[in-house]
Each structure stands twice: as structure tokens, then as C-alpha cells.
Description:
Number of domains of chain B: 1
Order of helices and strands of chain A: HHHHHH
Number of strands of chain B: 0
Shape of chain B: globular
Largest sheet of chain B: none
Radius of gyration of chain B: 17 Å
Number of helices of chain B: 6
Number of domains of chain A: 1
Oligomer: heterodimer
Largest interface: A-B, 118 and 106 residues
Transmembrane segments (chain B): 6-25, 52-69, 81-101, 113-135
Distance between the termini of chain B: 22 Å
Membrane topology (chain B): Multi-pass membrane protein
Family (chain B): Belongs to the TsuA/YedE (TC 9.B.102) family.
Strand content of chain A: under 5%
Distance between the termini of chain A: 49 Å
Helix content of chain B: over 70%
Pfam families (chain B): Sulf_transp
Radius of gyration of chain A: 18 Å
Keywords (chain B): Cell inner membrane, Cell membrane, Membrane, Transmembrane, Transmembrane helix, Transport
Amino acid sequence: MRILLSLLSGSLFGAGLFVSGMTDTRKVQGWLDVFGDWDPTLAFVMGGAIIPMFFAWRLTAGRTPLAGGAFPELPRPELDHRLIIGSVLFGVGWGLAGLCPGPSVASLSYGGAGGLVFMASMLVGMGAAPTIAQHLDRLATPA
Amino acid sequence: MQQDWIWGLVGGGLIGLAGAVYLLGNGRIMGASGIIGGLVDGSGRNTAWERLAFLLGVVVLPIILTPLYNVSIATHITDNWGVIIAAGLLVGVGSRIANGCTSGHGVCGISRFSLRGIVATVFYILAGGLALAVFRHVLGLI
């Protein structure tokens, strides 16, 4: 059940990324490039995605997930150095290549060698992230 | 080109629907970096099969849709290998340290008015915009 629901969700996600054009790095960079030929498409994708999710969050009230268990415990609304530093690093990489994790997976079949090298580098980065995060924690804690 | 925003809206709706199925079905937040990262660092070992099933769907649907689509589907990624590797490392490290990327913080976070999701999104968009300004318009690298 959980595996089938995951497959369904992943299929919708892959289809959405594909038809929205978000696997085209020119569109993503076009949105970030306010000093160049600005492309508003990404804002429509974000808006279109937030609407169903808004209703989904409202439907979680007083219910349990279809496959059983419980809805995730939400993190406390606290801002910390991990969130800010991580988002800045992610944003720079996202701007440089025009790819983020979802589209990098969706475009695996047609992204060519560049897409594969990006994916491999991203996986290395993800593997190193827990160690780097611990170093950041140590720096952020006053001795 | 003129219909790009319509396809963006339609595709966005599908992405939101995907997040709704993942949340209401499995009780989990759909974040691409979390789903992949949990497989890489072992933190998602107990849910490995559902993570793999999700990723299978993400890879396969574009393969099925490609023949139906009569426009160019190239990713147009840069051919500068140094930039690709640096970008991949930054995306991997950053999204995991921040505990989310465009799908987790952006789509799933903003839709519940999460402070963390909104702040993360503001910071990665500003950082991305700055990266383009510097590396494209100042240095001419991308």
C-alpha cells in the first residue's frame, strides 16, 4: 500500500516536473536571472503546486493517513543556522546549474552526461552533509 | 513560449497533487532532497522501498511522456564540468543541511504557511539570483 502510494505520488511528481518545463535549466535560470531575459514560468509552477497542497494540509486535521500511522510531527517554527546556511548553499548551486533534486531525477533519461555528473556530485554532497552540518553546529555553539 | 505559463500551472498542479497523495496517503512530507538523502546517508533505511518506488515514478513518467511531447525536452545544462560538479555538490550539501529544497520547503512548507519553509525559500531564491548575477553577468561563466 505505502509502496503503491509512493509510486503514484512519484509518477505525478515526475509528470508535473516534465510538463511544467522545470527540467529545462534555462527556465529555472531564466526565473532567477532578474538582470537578463526574465522568465516567470517558475512562479506559476510554484503557485499551481501550492494550491492542492494547501487543501491537503487542511484535510489532515482530525484524520490519519490512508496507509495508517500518523501525520508527521512538524518542526517548531524556529530559524537556525542550518536552515539559513543550507538554503544559501543550495540556492547558489541551484542558480549555477538550474537544477534541483527533483528535476535532476526527472531528467535522468534525457539529461545526458551533464545530468549524470550533476546527479553523482549531488549524491556525494548529500553523503557529506551530516558531517558538514556537525562542524557547523560546533562553530555555531559558543565555546 | 506564450503557453509556457499554462503548462507551468498544469505541471505545478500535478506536483501539488503528488505532495497531497504523499501526505494524505503515507503521512509523509514530499521533499525530493529528503527522499533521496535518506537513501544516501542511511537515515531512511526503514522506508527505503517506498523511497525507491517514488523515485522510480519520477524517472519513468518523463520517459512515457517524451514521445507524446513534440517540443524540445533537452535540459540545456551547461557544458562547463567544473560548474556542474560545484553546483551538484552545493545542491546536495545545502538541501540536506537545510533539511529541504524546492519541493519540501517550497511547495510543502509554504502551503502550510511554515515560517521555516518561507524563510528557506526566500534565502535560496536570493542566493540563486545572486549566483546568476555574479557568475553570468559579472564573470560570464554560465
